[in-house]
């Protein structure tokens, strides 16, 4: 049943897209950074970009290393690829199915004592799925 609903949603999205494409044939396509302030973003683009996928997310280092509270980190957050987005079924959740470690140089400061560049590992998501 959920499979059928997903196909119906995609079919409706395609019809709406084709209808709006006819109306805007003369208008040039705009990339992400080239949007006009009052431009309406098309349904299909909104739908595709909201679906479960990896996206760069700023993650607080303390979220990944909660036991290292005696340090101050610079920067205090790092850019990581993480799973986010919506699934076609409300009973499903966007979760990572393929991950790997990435090592970054972070300034680790122990107030009034020392500071040094440390190599710290973070989990990066490379593939997501609705489960």
UniProtKB/TrEMBL annotation:
One of its GO terms (molecular function) is growth factor activity. Residues 39-131 form the Platelet-derived growth factor (PDGF) family profile domain. GO terms for biological process: cell differentiation; induction of positive chemotaxis; positive regulation of angiogenesis; positive regulation of cell division; positive regulation of endothelial cell proliferation; positive regulation of mast cell chemotaxis; response to hypoxia; sprouting angiogenesis. It comes from the Eukaryota. PANTHER family: VASCULAR ENDOTHELIAL GROWTH FACTOR, VASCULAR ENDOTHELIAL GROWTH FACTOR A, LONG FORM. Belongs to the PDGF/VEGF growth factor family. This is Platelet-derived growth factor (PDGF) family profile domain-containing protein. It comes from Mycteria americana (Wood stork).
């Amino acid at each position: 049943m959920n499979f059928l609903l997903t196909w119906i949603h995609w079919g409706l999205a395609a019809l709406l897209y084709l209808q709006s494409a006819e109306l805007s044939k003369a208008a040039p396509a705009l990339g992400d950074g080239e949007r006009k302030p009052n431009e309406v973003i098309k349904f299909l683009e909104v739908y595709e970009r909201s679906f479960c996928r990896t996206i760069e997310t700023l993650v607080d280092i303390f979220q990944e290393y909660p036991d290292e509270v005696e340090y101050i980190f610079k920067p205090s957050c790092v850019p990581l690829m993480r799973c986010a987005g919506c699934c076609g079924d409300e009973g499903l959740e966007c979760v990572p199915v393929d991950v790997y470690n990435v090592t970054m140089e972070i300034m680790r400061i122990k107030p009034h004592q020392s500071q040094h560049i440390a190599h710290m590992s973070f989990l990066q998501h490379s593939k997501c799925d609705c489960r």
